[in-house]
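#structure-requests
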Amino acid sequence: MMEYRQLGRSGLKVPAFSLGTATFGGSNEFFQRWGSTQVDEARNMVDLCLERGVNFFDTADIYSEGAAEEVLGEALKGRRDKVLISSKATFPTGDGPNEKGSSRYHLIRACEASLRRLKTDHIDVYFMHGFDALTPVEETLRALDDLTSSGKIGYIGASNFSGWQVMKSLAASEKYGLGRYVAYQGYYSLVGREYEWELMPLTLDQGLGTMVWSPLGWGRLTGKIRRGAPVQDGRIAAGGAEGGPPVAEEKLFDIVDVLHDIGEQHGKSIPQVALNWLLSRPGIANVVIGARNRNQLEQNLEALGWSLSAEEIARLDEVSYTTPTYPYWHQTGFDERNPKPTGW
């Protein structure tokens, strides 16, 4: 049975997993490394998702230059009323000076273009894909408020913002009575736990639901990278780690060794254990899983329906621990008044 979680302080319930569509389309060299899933395979994946209770699909206008939204729109044809869609805007969609950012000018046009590609009249959760420091947050939020009032978007969220950028936006929403971000979509994995230092405490304090992207660490936790074994295939072998954060090789191998050991105890794979670990973390509303085809998707969905023990979680926490940067390492000396959500 699928578990449904509340998305922040909104009244919206979302499944624990959503299907990310960065693998759809493959219209340029960068996204081809991630995948090039076309409509027929995407439709098969949507079928499986709905069978398993995954009724949430995440996309963005820049994924394969809009092709991912087009493929998703075709795959969802005839069943739009059964699903939730999230999309994103802010990053460049053309060469013009106003074809990027979070200005009113760009957002209105970006949203309309996404609606056309998705073949729908509304987007359920609309994320700002990054922070635009040149546009006043009040202008961005007013544009999003108008799009919400018109019924073109349901809820709004922030993605890849730093903590102060989220708080500045939330303060503006409160001051001017504008729509408030209900979700934060960010990178978080066993090989990338920096999210815990500031953003996790912020989202818990301010009531934002967290959607995790790249939960397998840019493909490093798929089980294809093992100590002493060459990477034969998959996204990393194809150069798909480009643009991702660096991970020390020995650190990665240590984490994978523990994942493998725990997986053996449960009859689960390395990525299934890594995904299950994320579902146990504070404030996680949804984990965006990716797949190139139905078989990969089926494997990822097996991360649901079981739980790691407290001892197993502690083992994974210990092997993946990274000393925080300043001021977070300094704050650990005052934990009795400033406790950390995960105890790091």
